[in-house]
Design goal:
With 275 residues, the protein is of the alpha+beta class. It has 9 helices and 7 strands, in the order αααααααααβββββββ. The chain has 3 domains: 71 residues, 434 Repressor (Amino-terminal Domain) (Orthogonal Bundle), CATH 1.10.260; 93 residues; 89 residues, Umud Fragment, subunit A (Ribbon).
Length: 275
């Protein structure tokens, strides 16, 4: 969800700091009229992440890239998180120069690190498998597979920390989001007991959405699909040990919708450094 008013307020504060829209636009290397339209809320869609980065870098501390990405609604899309992951991967490529990996290896590695739908343990396992299959013949002198593995883990941590910081930034600036600690393993393997889901507050059922609900005084997550005859919803879990629940349209009052699940990750990925 693009929060136009909040974005406009931030841009206005930056302009006040510079003294004019022209000066701010010049520093950010963004068109003056383009910025003016966003200040006056004339454009309904958000700028691209690349433009947001320019604005953040020129904001003189008023805002940052993470906050702008949240305000502009990019958190709501897996594709947008891949944009962020892709950028961080590219920024960290210098760590791999000394291994002289070929393009096919780099592309395979990129897919592992940018697809954040896996739990962290699974990503680490894939990194380990990747490293073990690489020949050391192209490595700089005295470098080993262990060195490659450690650098890949460092890149993965950099990506994870950036995404976590982004989510926390959005949580702090937008009360429409909250974190939910899973109370069951219905959505395993993506969400186990104690893992954390990022949830957008809403109190209505959305066909095809994965929703956090309260049912029988228990909070749980299920995917909702409307039946073909539109007389009931099928509440499905990812864990095969949980049976689907058929909820009649006339029985919707038996549950309470708490929100829509935006993202799910294991709890270790949300821990701050040093915790």
């Amino acid at each position: 969800m693009f929060e136009q008013k909040k974005f406009s307020i931030i841009l206005s504060k930056i302009v006040d700091l510079y003294g004019s829209t022209v000066a701010f636009a010049s520093s950010a290397q963004v068109g003056r009229s383009y910025l003016s339209k966003y200040i006056n809320m004339k454009i309904p869609s958000p700028p691209t992440p690349k433009i947001l980065e320019k604005i953040a870098n020129a904001s003189r501390g008023i805002t940052n890239y993470d906050e702008l990405m949240g305000i502009c609604g990019y958190l709501n899309s897996n594709t947008s998180e891949q944009i962020i992951s892709n950028k961080i991967f590219d920024d960290n490529l210098f760590l791999l120069d000394k291994y002289h990996l070929d393009n096919s290896d780099l592309e395979h590695l990129k897919k592992i690190l940018i697809n954040r739908n896996e739990k962290q343990a699974n990503i680490v396992s894939q990194i380990n498998n990747f490293a073990e299959q690489i020949s050391t013949s192209s490595f700089d002198e005295n470098l080993t597979i262990v060195d490659l593995y450690n650098d890949l883990i460092k890149i993965n941590e950099n990506i994870s920390n950036k995404l976590v910081n982004l989510r926390h930034s959005v949580l702090n600036s937008n009360t429409n989001y909250f974190e939910f600690t899973s109370e069951d393993d219905a959505m395993y393997p993506l969400l186990d007991i104690g893992d954390i889901a990022l949830v957008y507050k809403q109190d209505y059922i959305e066909d095809g959405a994965t929703l956090l609900i309260n049912m029988d005084n228990h909070n749980t997550i299920r995917k909702f699909n409307l039946s073909e005859d539109k007389t009931y919803y099928i509440l499905s879990a990812m864990n095969g040990y949980y049976k689907n629940i058929d909820l009649k349209i006339t029985d919707l009052n038996k549950i309470k919708v708490l929100g829509k699940v935006i993202k799910a990750e294991n709890k270790s990925a949300f821990k701050k450094k040093g915790v």
